[in-house]
Amino acid sequence: MTVDPPLLRIGTRGSALALAQAEMVRALLIQAHPELASPDAVQITIIRTTGDAVTDRTLAAIGGKGLFTKEIEEALIDGRIDLAVHSMKDVATWLPDRLTIDCFLEREDPRDAFFSAKADGLMSLPPGAVVGTASLRRQAQILRARPDLSIVPIRGNVDTRLAKLAAGTVDATLLAAAGLKRLGQADKITQILPPDVMLPAVAQGAIGIERRTDDARVAAYLRPLDHAATRIRVAAERALLATLDGSCKTPIAALAELDAAGTLHLRCLIVSPDGKVAHAARRSGAPADAEALGRDAGQELRRRAGDGFFDLPIPDIPVR
Prior knowledge:
By secondary structure, the chain is of the alpha/beta class. The protein has helices spanning 16-32, 50-53, 59-62, 70-78, 136-145, 158-166, 177-182, 216-222, 228-243, 290-305; strands at residues 8-12, 42-46, 83-87, 99-104, 112-116, 130-132, 150-152, 172-176, 191-193, 207-212, 252-258, 264-271, 278-285.
């Protein structure tokens, strides 16, 4: 008996969140294209990435952004998969040649979530409390708000980090609210941190679908899934990132939002890893100018900070 090959092969990491996001994409594709509803028409392929394989060091220490996408993109270029589903905050600043991301699902809550059994929020943690995070962006903003706290790097999926919290390895930790909501675990969140306290990572909460640039067939399948407002917001934030040459080695935060009148507002922040030096910028304008707004804000921040700001050494501290 001959088995027809799948019409679409989706590449993804194997974490619970990554698989949930891939299943979201499969469900939306089937909803938009009934011919994909037949069994095995859309296949999900799990690909282990460097970021998944190396868990005892911070991402900044082993190469920064792109460590959760590199092997998936190689499979896409080689034709082993037809599209890839990514959390956009993990996507490198520049994509490989021949690949593009021009389809975005509607953005989930972009904010950071705080977890602790010892305090109801970041600002109410006792002096000297230990916060676990491997994110330089989170570390820098925590120390900016609470220089009395101690930061230790921890990594792992949602369950792993919450287990370390329960075991007393740390007194508090932070995760992206979007992931908890997509996994149906929002009830575990102690506090959603407002952007004025913790500005999110670039494109946090957004899912992007990557494809080969010349693959018109896949482009046609993806077109109905694209959420225009999310694409505009991500464009502004990633233009800022590109202008700053940002990676996990540079504490950069940004959030673009559209108001009821359709105006795009961009907030962005760079902070030294110790939280002692920070530069912020804001821009507002038309959605059509999203990338220009991001570039302009990035140029302002680079001028104000000076090149040396982005050359600060990153300590290679073992992850707990």
